[in-house]
Amino acid sequence: MARTLGLVVKNDPRAMDKADGLEKWLKTKGCQVIRKASDAPNPNPLGNPDIAPEKLFCVVVLGGDGTFLSAVRWMGNQQAPLLGVKFGEVGFLAEASEEHLFDVVGAILHKPFTTRPRMRLRAEVWRQDRRLASEVVLNDVVINKGALARLAHIKTYVNDRYLTDYRADGLIVATPTGSTAYSLAAGGPIMHPTVQGILVTPICPFTLTNRPLIVPDSATIKIQLAEKSADIILTFDGQLGLPIDEHNTIIVHKDPLAVNMIVLPDRDFFDVLKTKLRWSGSRL
């Protein structure tokens, strides 16, 4: 039986040209290819999502981290492994570089390969007893105020126990994978992808004692806005956005299904970290 591979491609001339060559090459190997362009951010997550077909052998992602997140959303609950191939800047989610694309994909086709699970979060938006949205993210769920809005008042609970009211520009709830994304820019810590935790990071908090917090991955986080909140947006992995107000309750918890990422034997998380963040220093 011919293997079917998914191919998710960034809207970039170089990436699309490389994808054309890869698609032709895979077909000479007897493979079928299902190709998809990377989605642009969507302001409305309530429509019917485009979901990948079942029984894909793997999905190759040509682009940056945004393209990878788009591919994860396209996969839905399908468990085919994903391989990220970076174009340009080093991406945290990319395992291979552009120049090694054909060698790496050839090795995946003909040799056993290793995958590692990456935790996802499920975020649900409720209005009284009605669920308005349910989305799964690999990186983060973010509450953001608009440019002209006042500080958001975000009442936060962990396992139904009141934690605090964040007065801030917003709040990020992130996976270990997402700790190197928006949360890092907001001053959050870096978590190794295998750490079993959920990161809660306030964005520009009014109170300096409100610091980033790591809770167990078994925790359920509940978020509500203060009365008369306006111009507040909830985003999922930066791909989708939904306006929210004080009448909504957001529930975030670990999703039972992880994302399976193909890993290469010569790639180490800390080496990527040092390269991406341009860390330097002598070696002992």
Q: Enter the CATH topology name of the largest domain.
A: Tumour Suppressor Smad4
Helix content: 10-25%
Order of helices and strands: EHEEHEEHEEEEEEEHEEEEEEEH
End-to-end separation: 52 Å
Quick one: CATH class of the largest domain?
Mainly Beta
Rg, alpha carbons: 20 Å
* Total number of beta strands: 19
Mean pLDDT: 91
List the domain count as a whole number.
2
Q: How would a textbook summarize the main sheet?
A: 6 strands, antiparallel
- CATH architectural label of the largest domain: Sandwich
Outline: elongated
Order the strands across the largest sheet as they lie in space. 8-7-18-15-10-11
Structure description:
It is a single chain. With 284 residues, the chain is α+β, with helices and mostly antiparallel strands. The protein folds into two domains: 4-118 and 259-276, 3-Layer(aba) Sandwich (Rossmann fold), CATH 3.40.50; 121-254, Tumour Suppressor Smad4, CATH 2.60.200. Helices cover 17% and strands 38% of the residues. The protein contains five helices and 19 strands. It has helices at 13-28, 65-75, 101-110, 182-185, 269-276, and strands at 4-9, 32-37, 58-62, 82-86, 96-97, 114-118, 121-127, 130-137, 140-145, 152-158, 161-168, 170-174, 197-203, 213-216, 221-225, 232-236, 240-244, 248-254, 259-263. A six-stranded antiparallel sheet has the order 8-7-18-15-10-11. The longest helix is centred in the first third of the chain and has 16 residues, at 13-28.
